[in-house]
Structures are given as C-alpha cells and as structure tokens.
Amino acid sequence: MVEQNQQGYFAAGQQAETGVIAKTFMANVFLWMTLALVITAITAFFFAADQALIGSLVNFETGKMSGLGWFVTLAPLGFVLLMSFGYQRLSPGIMTLLFLVFSVLIGMSLSFILIVYTAASVYKTFAITAGMFGIMAFTGYATKTDLTRFGSIMFMGLIGVLLAMLVNFFLKSSMLEYIISIIGVLVFTGLTAYDVQKLKRIGSQPLDQANTRKMSIMGALTLYLDFINLFLFLIRLLGNRK
C-alpha cells in the first residue's frame, strides 16, 4: 500500500512538472508570436503611410510591381520552407532572425490592406480575429479531446481552399471568392485549436535548450500564420473598401 502511494505521488509530481514545462513552452510560443504580429503591424503602418515606401513595392501609374515588390510577395514562402527543412541545421539565433525578418516582409505586403480598406474596418476585423483566435487557442489548450483527426480534416480543407483560389485566379468569380473566404475562416479557426494542442504536446516533452528555443520559434510561426490567414479571409468578408 505504501509503495502504491509512493508511485501515485511520483506520477502526480511528474505530471505536474510536465504541465509546468508545457505552460512555459506555450508562453514562449505566444510571446514570439505576439512580437512578430507587433512588428508586422508597425511595418504595415509605416509603409502604408509613406508614399515613397509603398511606391518602392508597386508603381501605381502602371500597376506593376517592382523587383522589391516581387521579392516581398515571394520571399515569405522561401523563408517558411527554409525554416521548416533547415530546422536541424539552423541555430536558434538564425531561426529567430529569419522569423523576425519574415514578419517584416509580411508587414510590407499587408500594407496594401491599409490602403484598400478603411481603417475602421481593419481595426474591427483585427479585433474579431483576435477574439476568434483567442477562443480557439484556449479551446485547443484546455480540451481533453484528441484533435488529430480533426486537424487532418482541416488540413484537407486547406488544400481545397488553395486549389479553389488557384482556379478562381483565372475565373475571377466574386461568388467563388466569397465562398472561399467563408471556408478559409472555418479552416483556420479549426487549425488554430489543433495547432495549439499539438504544440502543447510537443512542449510537454523533454527537449534540450537549443531545440526548445527553435521549436518555440516554429510554433510561433505556425500560430502566426494561422492568425494572419484568418485575418485575411475575414477582411475579405467584413472589410469596407475606401
């Protein structure tokens, strides 16, 4: 009986320690994600407010993007691939630097939203995005239900959204764009809960200091992309053009 009690106390203590590690890890993930969002917002504001800066990305007279504009458009995908496939080789410092530069590039590209949509609708949509993201993040962290199968369904939905967007690039259907936006909101809302639960599980596992730092950055990147994409689909539905 005494031995069983000791085993129970040991298991409870180990579970409590695992919970603390997971909370610390998730706190770091959300901290890096928030920092990246702040950098993105500041960058977008400065580029939208300065005609010379926004003009360095696109020529409004011809409607053509400059070389820098194309770089800003295409480079973020390269950054994501580099961080994902170069995870083992890259140092924590380089991973952090890449993530912060990535957030600047996204801010430069999102500056056009502040030009196209009214400031009031952008602020309103951002607040709604933050609310939805926060609710689903809490749900993913607190729920005891395994969301693995749910995450797989959301990922298939994401593939469908990307294919539909590719098709609509040629069709230019406003109705299809509206449907895509609705599905996109649902997909990234669901992915937020799934990704938070997945990161919580990763954070509860023992990792060395370097891998903990790198995994925190990758986790922040994942949630950052969930937030940004949710915002982009919502602004298409709720945004008022100037």
Q: Helices and strands in order, then pairings?
A:
Elements: H1 2-49, H2 51-55, E1 58-59, E2 64-65, H3 67-85, H4 92-116, H5 119-142, H6 148-171, H7 174-203, H8 209-238
Antiparallel strand pairs: 1-2
Helix pairs in contact: 1-4, 1-7, 1-8, 3-4, 4-8, 5-7, 5-8, 6-7, 7-8
Please summarize what this structure is.
This protein has helices at residues 2-49, 51-55, 67-85, 92-116, 119-142, 148-171, 174-203, 209-238; strands spanning 58-59, 64-65. By secondary structure, it is an all-alpha fold. A hairpin with a 4-residue loop joins strand 1 (58-59) and strand 2 (64-65).
Walkthrough of the structure:
The protein has 242 residues and is mostly helical. It has one domain. Helix content is 85%, strand content 2%. It is built from eight helices and two strands. A two-stranded antiparallel ribbon has the order 1-2. Strand 1 and strand 2 form a beta hairpin. Helix 3 packs antiparallel against helix 4 and helix 5 packs across helix 8. The radius of gyration is 21 Å and the shape is globular.
Counting H and I runs of at least 4 residues, what is the number of helices? Answer: 8
Low-confidence stretches: 2-16
The total beta strand count reads: 2
Strand order of the largest sheet: 1-2
SSE class: mainly alpha
Main beta sheet strand tally, sense and closure: 2 strands, antiparallel
Question: How big a fraction of the residues is strand?
Answer: under 5%
Please describe the structure with a list of short key phrases separated by commas or semicolons.
single chain, 242 residues, mainly alpha, 85% helix, 2% strand
